[in-house]
Amino acid sequence: MRIDKPGIYAMSDQAYLADPVVEPSLNNSTAKVLVSLSPLHAFAMHPRLGAAPDIDHDTTEAQDVGHVAHQLFLHGESRIRILNVPDFRTNKAKEARDAAINEGRIPLKAERYEAVRRVVDALERFRERTGAFTAGKPEQALIWHEGAEWARCKVDWLPDEPSAHLWDLKTISGRATLQSWSRNAFDLGYDMQAAYYPRGAECVRGEPPEGMRFAVIETSAPYGIRVFEMSPQALDVAQAQISEAIAIWAECRATNAWPSYPDDVEWLDPPPWKVREWEWRTRTGASRRAAARASSDQAVVDRMIKTGNLGG
To answer: Is residue 218 classed as helix, strand or coil in its secondary structure?
Structure first.
């Protein structure tokens, strides 16, 4: 049965990704595609429009450390099932894996558990030290109206206090530095996420949260953790993008037309490195040619002196 009332709902990732709302709803991933690619791309990826739900997760070597640590930290040990198998190639191992999945758990090889546990332990120390990810509920789906359209998001940690920051947990295989993490944050649409999720929380709860914070943890020693928040400038741009995405979504839904890229011809400007490279080659080439000419002229003079043919 599909959701037909705005509110806060607890549901599995599979149910959320399949879009549980009574009509196709707009989430942040679709909004990002609408403004960065085209409506046709958004149509193609949406589980209720042009695509099948993306819920067929690989469950063999499946769950990387970051994903499992995310689930274990937010939901506890009940979310996973530790299996004493070297791999999932045998029928017995496959049966145990499938049984865990059918129970709504993540199958995890015992040898990988220790790696996951180290990440979770670091997160637990962070929680105790800062008070983050306390007094709230994990992975809550927010369903609301944007005009006549439905919208949805799923918050990693929804605080009990409506005015408090929403929390999002990210794992990174590299280092959680400002430079390395921000490089991908905007490409992956985390700026729009930081605008979209609080917007949904305000619509559902009637009070705006202070914003959204990202806790980013490294999945290798020393398991460093950094907290990031989008700047006011980043949020201003993201809010404008969200508004544009909502307008495009509403128009496409009303007309049932999902255009692709525009047909206009666009200029391709050379990147700065290409210009610099050619300028360098031009300068060095001119220098080599000048040197060659000077060398050639000197050779002529030397021959004239040697032969005594100096003119006059």
So the answer is: strand
Band (pLDDT 50/70/90 cuts) for residue 107 is confident
CB atoms within 10 A of CB 25: 23
Q: Looking at the DSSP assignment, which residues form a beta bridge with residue 81?
A: 107
pTM of the predicted protein model: 0.81
Structure confidence by residue, pLDDT tens digits, 233-288: 999 999 999 999 999 999 999 999 999 999 999 999 988 988 888 888 887 766 66
CB count in 10 Å sphere of residue 16? 20
Q: How many CB atoms lie within 10 A of CB 195?
A: 24
Enter the DSSP assignment of 102.
H
To which H or E segment does residue 155 belong? strand 149-159
Which is nearest to 62 in space by CA: 96, 97, 93? 97
Q: What is the pLDDT of residue 291?
A: 61
In terms of phi and psi (left: phi > 0; alpha: psi -120 to 50; beta: otherwise), the region of 282 is: alpha
80-83 and 7-10: which strand pairing? Answer: unpaired
Q: Which two tokens stand for residue 1?
A: 């049965």
The average pLDDT across 171-175 equals: 91
Rg (CA), the chain: 29
- Going by C-alpha positions, the residue among 173, 78, 168, 72 that lies closest to residue 114 is 72
Measured distance CA(300)–CA(6) in Å, rounded? 91
Q: Is the peptide bond before 222 cis (omega within 30 degrees of 0)?
A: yes
Q: Are 258 and 39 in contact, with CB atoms under 8 Å apart?
A: yes
**How far is Cα 276 from Cα 5, in angstroms, rounded to an integer?**
58
